[in-house]
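Everyone, study these two lines:
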Amino acid sequence: MNDAHFQRGSLLYHQGRYADAIGELQLQLAAGESFPTHSLLALCFSEQQKYPEAMEHVQRAIHLAPDKPLGHYALAQVLLQRNRPAEAQAAIEEAIRLDPSDADYYALLGGIALRQSRWRDALNAANQGLAIEPEHQFLINLRATALVKLGDRAAAAATIGQALARRPDDPLTHANQGWALLHEGQPYKALEHFREALRLNPELEWARLGIVEALKARNFLYRAMLGYFLWMSRLPANVRIGLVGGALAANWIIGDLAVRSPHLAPFLWPVLYAYFAFVLLSWLSYPLFNLLLRIDKFGRHALSADQRSGANVLAVCLGIFLLAAGRSIAARLGWFGPTAVRQVELIDYCTQMCALLALPASAIYICDSGWPRQVMIAITAALAAAVGLVTLVVGFSLSDVSPLILTPLVMVIRALPFGMLASQIAANYLMGASPKK
């Protein structure tokens, strides 16, 4: 059978010209059905996010040749793009069972493990693949990334160094070198490699994300926070949860001790305030420094659409907070006439809630598009409505407020702090959620 259309389709696929590749592969199908053609068509449709068509072709490929690994490999690729890593792993493990001598299969297995933050499994897959094909560039980069995440910087540096010496024009290797340097706290050197990676491949998202982080890390405060984030990312999920829970428990114990032991309070309150400032900065540092890049002549071009939108939302929240803070100061100075002490306290409370509103709002564009982002928008909108309602009513004399309004208002005032805390718990979950496609 003449496979000229298949060969052209394969070439076009590797060039990223998926629509043209589909045309050639469909011509090949017209000449005769085959499982390699269906497999490659599935990959092309998946790259175009046409998942029903991709699944139709990959299932046909497996039906035609269930004992051939290619169809299972294509299925794993499609499932991974649909954010179904557990199913993708089962598919690629079947491909490896059928043919354990293909390094590309171990590359995909390691990529799935990397997506799930299973650094040790990713390293094992990379080592298995490199035992088959020592020059496999993706596997070398996979190994380097896993080593960085596991904290073995010396081995990671050696791996990346060998990869760069072998292929100095590989954009992924330069991007990985940049991330390794970021982990070492060297943002300026990291920038050089990220820029080179983007020069070689302007569409490489891994390098674009890195250049944004490196630009922000030029600020010593964000550099410290980035070091903390990268350190936390290297820890297993259960250890991260334990550390956060332990810090919250310690904060509660210190706060209780400060209330019960006034003689210790002058020493304990600064610890509590420092902890609160750290938590606030850890939640807001990402969008806050994106906002600073938004006004940087070079940085604004490195930000993605979501990062720019997140920075804009934070700017609006900060503007609302400044207005509320101005109203609070004016009330204390009596610029709008005499104000009851209780009302001044409530105005101050509204100012604090306006500040805290930035926390859920800043998480909106960190969540994946789809249901996680929609849920985060709904949570933020509900909290904003509650804060707006309280602020509006408190702006008038409370003596003029009807008891029918005052009673639910008090309930909202008492519930708001718990709502803000709950929003952060929800945000942490939603930011880690990947909607299936």
About this structure: Residues 304-437 form one domain.
